[in-house]
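Q: Structure tokens for this one, please.
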Amino acid sequence: MSTVLAAAAAALFGIGTYLVLQRKLSRIIIGLGLMSHGGNILWLTAGRAGREPIVGEDDTLAMADPLPHALALTTIVITFGASALLLALAFRSWVLTHDDEVENDVADLLVARGGVVARDVIDERLAEAELVREEEQVAMRTADDRSRDESRPRP
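A: Here is the predicted structure, written as tokens:
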């Protein structure tokens, strides 16, 4: 039974990932919901089967582990809140643009083309260029010192 549930969770994660990578906001929301359901199935398969965890009724080895069930309920509540937020954002996007397609961001396009370089990368490049200049200056000084030494008359 756990193999079937693991396969179901994998299928939900796979289909959810495929939908999240789409351009339509409605598919993204459905994909996040499917991935959440896959996570819930994983939580439920993590626990062991048994009787209800009511203290004092049975020995603890025969009881089910309540932690995965509590975590699954928490996941359901968080997913509900996130889905409500995403649906509100999708509705607002629909009202403004009459389409639910996620458009390309101009800043993302610049980064993809290599037009934007992070500040720390620029700082590293400047530091490397300064180090190379200093090494060249040291090499030139030592070459000048050697040529002066060679041009001096020896006693």
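A few notes: Helices lie at 2-20, 25-46, 66-97, 106-113, 119-151. Residues 119-151 form the longest helix (33 residues).
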